[in-house]
Amino acid sequence: SETFYSVQGEGITQGVPAFFIRLQNCNLNCIWCDTKKIWKCGNEISYKQLEDRIKESGQFNNILLGKVHLIWTGGEPTLQEKEIKGFINYLRKKYGSSKIFSEIETNGTIYVSNDFYENYIDQINCSPKLNNSGMPSQRRINFKSIKQINDNPNSYFKFVICKEKDIIEIENDFIYKFNINKNKIILMPNADNRLDLFKNTQICYELTKKYGYRTITRGQILVWDKKSGV
Questions:
Q1: How many domains is the chain partitioned into structurally?
Q2: Where are the alpha helices (DSSP H) in the chain?
Q3: What pLDDT shows up at residue 198?
Q4: Is residue 230 part of a domain?
């Protein structure tokens, strides 16, 4: 759908330079999704064309060295597991690089092959959807895939927070059920503009003080507001 060089705005690696590859399609339809218009569009391209897009950013060598993270996002990028593995293998074979640092942004509903997370993805940024997404639980919670992600030591779970009741849902449906370590939990304010970000970050900070879970705000909205692809 789109590619761009920027800075990781969310999660545990917030602030690191990153090249984003947004893949088409998603298996969910969350009411507050801020990238829906983008991931619904897009064209199929070859590995060589994707390589050329990365080179146009001027960061290709830094990506091969792991200095700039490669971030697979969407939509739901695990729907294209085969293509992601294929592209990384393409780079490894062509350039002999084993230092590429790949992050993936996933909703945690797709069970993937074990070697995908073990051999191709260096960090899993899982954002399970809550009731506030408007999606029924049977579509947004997959026990097998959440367990698979939690078993990976390089995984984190970031939850979009609207109200305090979301914390109770997170604890009952995810933390206690899957025995997720508290250090893997990230609260993220629901926002698609600076005004809402300011208001809801305050809510998240108060919840952090009360419940002890880490809050990480959304840097891309803080800096660029509603603008996408930056």
A1: 1
A2: 36-39, 47-56, 60-64, 81-95, 114-119, 137-140, 143-150, 165-170, 176-178, 194-211, 219-224
A3: 96
A4: no
**In this structure, is residue 214 part of a structural domain?**
no
58 upstream amide cis, omega within 30 of 0: no
Amino acid 152 reads N
Among 82, 76, 88, smallest CA distance to 47 is for 88
- pLDDT for position 39: 64
> What six digits make up the tokens of 208?
């952090």
Output the domain CATH number for residue 78: 3.20.20.70
Q: 130 to each of 42, 149, 211, how far by Cα in Å?
A: 28, 17, 18
pLDDT tens track for 138-193: 999 999 999 999 999 999 999 999 999 999 999 999 999 999 999 999 999 999 89
Helices then strands, each counted (H, E), the chain: 11, 8
Distance, in Å, from the CA atom of 162 to the CA atom of 102, rounded to the nearest integer, reads: 29
Confidence (pTM):
0.94
